[in-house]
Design goal:
Layout lengths: L1 E6 L3 E8 L2 E8 L3 H11 L4 E5 L3 H7 L5 E2 L2 H15 L6 E7 L3 E7 L3 E7 L3 H12 L4 H8 L9 E2 H5 L11 E3 L13 H26 L4 E5 L7 H13 L3 E4 L6 H6 L2
Bound molecules: adenosine-5'-triphosphate (ATP) and magnesium ion.
The site of magnesium ion (MG) has 5 residues, from loops.
């Protein structure tokens, strides 16, 4: 059995390959010591492959040898495989790993280059949501955000131009959270939650669009657990990308790219 583990800032992603096929699992990074005990107890005879920011911590505490790889290389290997499986045939693209934080990469079929990062990511989504509304649970944030109205919080271009012709589409956000002091209405918890998701989605998409432009491609691939069952965020990413004539792809199981690619 081969086990690939991507131990990130928030979640430990695990890919298990055995004769029956492939299984994916995830654990909160706060339970890292429990995961280590389980590996020492039940998986010492298996081949373990590690990557991610907390890989070294795990390797130090295991009482058997493992293979480690650099997070960005492992993620690219896994992503390449997942793109192929999803019949997404891209020869030139940018990809964004929206994890706790976000990292940006430009890629061809055979290689990738990390071109930057942003502290705005999934940790921003959960942290800011919690500060504003007391709701920090990822799934609950998304569920409640579905009933929210961004117009109560965000300032759109058409708000500023007030019905007159604007040089850019009126539906674009002019200022995330910028309508709070303008709007007569108060913003509900739901409105605030969808605005937080909008802030993260639009920040990473704006960066992706610029990077794609500079790399002469329209293809932007998004991975990372922040997008997991997160229709609210992916809808915003797709709509914004479309407005800018770029093509966004969210890869199925993309959050397991690192775990899968660690197995080499
Ligand atoms: P990094 O790569 O930045 O070190 P990571 O690998 O842990 O972090 P991901 O697992 O890709 O990052 O994404 C973490 C984000 O996914 C969280 O910040 C949160 O927004 C979201 N998320 C999705 N499911 C969960 C969950 N069950 N528990 C906590 N966060 C979740
Ligand atoms: Mg990660």
């Amino acid at each position: 059995m081969k086990i690939g583990i991507d131990a990130g800032g928030t979640l430990i992603k695990v890919a298990i390959l055995d004769k029956d096929g492939r299984t994916f699992k995830k654990y909160p990074s706060s339970e890292i010591d429990g995961v280590i005990s389980m590996l020492n107890k039940d998986y010492a005879r298996d081949e373990i492959y590690l990557t991610g920011g907390k890989a070294e911590y795990i390797a130090e505490k295991l009482n058997f040898d493992v293979t480690s790889s650099i997070e960005f290389d492992a993620t690219f290997r896994g992503l390449t495989q997942l793109l192929k499986e999803a019949d997404m045939d891209l020869d030139r693209y940018v990809y964004l790993n929206v994890g706790t934080g976000t990292s940006f990469h430009q890629a061809t079929r055979n290689s990738q280059k990390r071109v930057g990062g942003s502290g705005v990511g999934g940790g921003t989504m959960t942290g800011l949501s919690y500060l504003l509304t007391g709701i920090g649970d990822f799934d609950k944030i998304i569920e409640r955000a579905k009933d929210g109205l961004r117009d109560n919080v965000d300032l759109k271009v058409h708000h500023i131009y007030n019905g007159r012709p604007s040089p850019i589409p009126g539906d674009l956000t002019a200022s995330n959270f910028g309508n709070i002091l303008n709007a007569q209405k108060t913003a509900s918890a739901e409105d605030q939650l969808i605005a937080v998701i909008g802030l993260v989605a639009e920040t990473v998409t704006a960066m992706a669009i610029n990077l794609a432009d500079a790399f002469d491609t329209k293809n932007m691939v998004f991975i990372g657990s922040t997008l997991l069952n997160n229709e609210v965020m992916t809808d915003i990413i797709y709509r914004y990308s479309e407005l800018k004539n770029a093509r966004a792809f969210v890869v199925p199981n993309g959050e397991y790219s690192g775990a899968l690619g660690a197995i080499s």
